[in-house]
Hints:
The chain has 367 residues and is an alpha+beta fold. The chain contains 12 helices and 20 strands.
Amino acid sequence: MFDDFAPKLAQVMAGYSTQIKEGDFVYITTSTLAAPLVEALYEAILDRGGNPSVHLRQPGLDELFYQKASDAQLEFVSPLGEVIMREADVYIVIGADDNTKALSGIDPSRFVKVQQANKHVREMLFKRLDGDLRYLYTVWPTPAAAQQADMGLLDYRAFVYKACGLDLPDPVAHWQSFRATQERLSAWLADKRHAEIKGPGIDLSFDFQGRKWISCHGDLNMPDGEIYTGPVEDSVNGRVEFSYPSLSAGTDVDGIKLTFKDGVVVEASAEKGEAHLLAQLDVDAGARRLGEFAIGTNFGVTQYTGNTLFDEKIGGTIHMALGNSIPDSRGVNQSSIHWDIVHGMQNGGEIRIDGELFYRAGEFMIG
């Protein structure tokens, strides 16, 4: 079953998402569990004249590192990361976990040390994303990811297959049409300035004058499906009680409640994983501000999985990212974290733009 999964996904990745061309230096990083997709992608890149370089990680090494590393080792920055950020034409990351909870027992402060040490490498990535780097993140279904999603492996493979549009006669044509629809929405928002979001669990507002709404249609993530912007940093006010849990660095965080005043989180709590939430908020000054506000638009993603790649795309949801802004949106918040958290709008949630009803319960109301 799904014998064509890896070849079809590889063709979408190489032919549509990253548009590999002759001479491209393509860097691929993943775990050994994604071998079928790596092989298919390697072949697809060669067929297009690209030069693939693969970095395969052995499962378990991240857990070993965070358990054993000294402070100096946690703060060490590999020069390889800087070289790749400078030299790659295409950077592809394939998530393929053997244990989604492998890091759940790690002291959150150890993640903070690594995040802070590597901040400039992340800044290099975002700067190049605003320029000439073609970046793509996708996943390969593993038993651990299926278990995290409360699915059997076959059901999970079917879920990912559909989310990527691989069940359709022409997946590339699907994503091209998807892109046209979303770019129309982004264009409508271009000259607007203020958003109000209300519904079960949320009463929030922010300005976005001078910012840009970006359509995400499969060229940075696969699957994809969102439009996002960077809120004006000091304009966010209100509260949200997130209806979806979040998995951050192997830690389940659920029942997250945030209150914003003039852009800053002034109250925060969680029913589960509160220590991790508070530690992330205190990573740096920018961690308490929103770097992103987005609307999920992929109705092929039908349920929560514990993987942000899918969860933030669920049709009928919104999500917000604490921390670093994405430069394409013209946001200027700086932080070593970028943590997306999802909230459902399916039960009557509304978004008004400059007072006009733009979105209700998953449906865009503009013509």
